[in-house]
Structure formats: C-alpha cells, structure tokens
Design brief:
The structure is a single chain. With about 160 residues, the protein is of the alpha+beta class. Helices cover about 20% and strands about 30% of the residues. The longest helix is centred in the middle third of the chain and has 14 residues.
Length: about 160
C-alpha cells in the first residue's frame, strides 16, 4: 500500500485536456526534467487545482457553491502552461494514483478545441508538438496519454 501523507478524504485534483485542432492533430508537451511526476515524459496540458480557484470568486451555484470550477481551472492552466485559449472542455474520464511523495491525486481528463493563440511554454515544459493520434508511438509519453488521445479522436469522428 502507498504511503499517503494526507487524510483519506483529500486528494490533489489535477484536470488535464487533449487539445485538438481542426486538422485532427493534438497538442502534446514534454514535461520538464525537474518535475516530481513523470519528468521528461510527453503529456497533455493540465495542472493542479486549489480551492482558491473558486473561493475567491462570487458564488455561482446555490447559496455557497460554484458552477464548473474544474473547467475554469483547466482553462487557466492551459493559458499559463501553453498560452492557448480553448473551447468548452468535454469530459473523457478520471483516474487516481499516489505521487512519489505520497500525495493522492484525482486526475480528470477532458478534450477541447484550440480556439486561439500560439503555443508559448512555461517552465513546466521543455518542448511541444501537434501530432496525429497514430504518431504517439514515436514519443516517450505517459502511458495513459495514448488512450486519452485515442478516446478523444474517436469522439470527434
């Protein structure tokens, strides 16, 4: 069993997104070599979400809640990480794992169209490319990326 450093009710929430263009290509980014999880591997954009993402904004759901905070966090992450604007994210699936430092993670995967902007990487990535799903085998990707891009590609047909 993994050594978990937080209480069983708490997870780090990490939304990610398979960004696609009209030509059927998807954006993948190479994670920086100094990251805790999957250093140097190719992945799709995404990142951690904190409660400050929504608690510092006006309530939009009922008396004390927020509507679509994961979508908003994902759009922010994409702007920060790769400099792009995306359309409305659509849900693909979710997963869990425990990071090497013992933090449990709930990953949520979406797909969304590229709307505008040119890729500008932040310090968490060292490279990027737009690929067709069948080209993924040419890259040292996080294992799940193949399935995520394949699933998004199927839904777009």
């Amino acid at each position: 069993m993994a050594n978990i450093v937080s209480t069983p009710e708490l997870h780090r929430i990490v939304p990610s997104v398979a960004i696609y263009r009209d030509d059927g290509r998807f954006l993948i980014i190479k994670r920086a070599s100094n990251l805790k999880v999957h250093p140097g591997k190719w992945s799709i954009p995404g990142g951690g979400m904190s409660s400050e993402e929504y608690t510092n904004t006006p309530v939009t759901y009922g008396d004390n809640g927020w509507y679509l905070p994961v979508h908003e966090a994902l759009k922010r992450e994409v702007r920060e990480e790769v400099g792009l604007e995306i359309g409305e994210p659509k849900y693909l699936h979710h997963y869990t794992f425990v990071r090497p430092d013992g933090v449990p993670v709930l990953g949520m995967v979406f797909y969304a169209p590229h709307v505008s902007g040119d890729v500008v990487l932040d310090e968490d990535a060292s490279d990027f490319t737009w690929i067709l799903p069948e080209e993924l085998s040419n890259y040292d990707c996080i294992a799940s990326i193949h399935r995520e891009i394949a699933a998004a590609s199927e839904l777009l047909k």
